Amino acid sequence: MKYILLLLASILALFAGCDNEKNPEYLPKANGKPGEIVLIVDSIQWKGALGAELKKIFRAEVPALPQDEPMFTVIWAHPEKNMRLLTQLRNLVYVFTLDQNTRGSRTLKETIGPQTIERIKRDTSFYMSTIKDEYALGQEVMYLFGDREENLIRHLKRDGQKIIDYFNLLERQRLTKSLLGRRSADGVSAFLRREQNIEIGIPVGYKLADRRSDFVWLRQIAPDHDKDIFVTWKPYESEYQFLPDSIIAWRDAIAKRYLYEDPKNPISYLITERDDADVLTKQVNFNNRFAMEVRGLWRTNNRTMGGPFLGYAIADEPKGVLYYIEGFAFAPGKDKREFMRELETILWSFKTSAELTQAR
């Protein structure tokens, strides 16, 4: 997460033509679906090399899903002077370069002040600016620009992943407010705080499926999908427990012991899918704590069910406990990107005893 904070800190200049004195009370609430991004760029550049790089960034494939799904749902719009309805969506990205003189490019350049134009001309490292609540409450507007198209493309090639992470973080922050404002399953929360001194946000609709001395399973079951969260723990003995193979072996042991297709029928249990899919792992800064992220596919041992999962292994070293938290989804015939985004948001609310002690 550190590089995201550095990216945010580097965004120093705002556009002179922006009205910073807007009264938020008179702004409408931003609308649109999670994961939607409106790209406002001239049609010629959208169809050319710049557009290809933008599509590569925003339409990148979400990792570890059963079917191909783009990272964001991209809505392309040609710049127009009257775009009121479009500009009330939650994520807007304006893109232009000074070396283009098409009608769309001129429209975009007319919205900024001469001081910003001069800075773009003389400072080739200046290629991005963001504004919150520009046209609507809860909205994020990003500007991507350059003196020449090739310079902007160079920045996008270098920082494309940071831009993706920036919007993914924004979507997770929005979901945190909507999902975790109210909580259910208070008995489970109390059990986790009392027995393990840990905490995880539990949205309305999730019910306790199972609770053991080293394991808690929560489910939200709907007619067309099933979303699941589980937390398990064991003694933390060595950093070697963070090795991917060790985490997957632990996951499979817990799944075989506790996670059944039908809790009343332990014949069919969950395993990590290895036949046709890779398990993706990486080190992450999890709320200022080291963690190993694991993404992959799960299925039942008899191949009757399957779907994506996301997990994190996190150590509470002072307490000597290693935790594994996971969200997995089952939604046959449906896109799963937003299900996994919701589960990821819940997982990132997890706090160990160290964070809870600090919060007090």
Low-pLDDT runs of 5+ residues are 1-21
Question: What is the oligomer described by this structure?
Answer: single chain
Q: Helix share of residues?
A: 25-40%
Relative strand content? 25-35%
Instruction: Tally the helices.
Output: 10
Key attributes of the depicted protein:
360 residues, alpha+beta, Chitobiase, domain 2, Protein Transport Mog1p, Chain A, 2 domains, nine-stranded antiparallel sheet, five-stranded mixed sheet, 10 helices, 14 strands, 31% helix, disordered N terminus
Structure description:
Strands 6, 7, 8, 9, 10, 11, 12, 13 and 14 form a nine-stranded antiparallel beta sheet that branches. This protein has a five-stranded mixed beta sheet with strand order 2-1-3-5-4, with helices on both faces. The protein has two domains: 2-179, Chitobiase, domain 2 (2-Layer Sandwich), CATH 3.30.379; 186-359, Protein Transport Mog1p, Chain A, CATH 3.40.1000. The protein is elongated. It contains ten helices and 14 strands. Mean pLDDT is 88; it is low at 1-21. It is of the alpha+beta class and 360 residues long. It is 31% helix and 29% strand. It starts with a helix and ends with a helix.
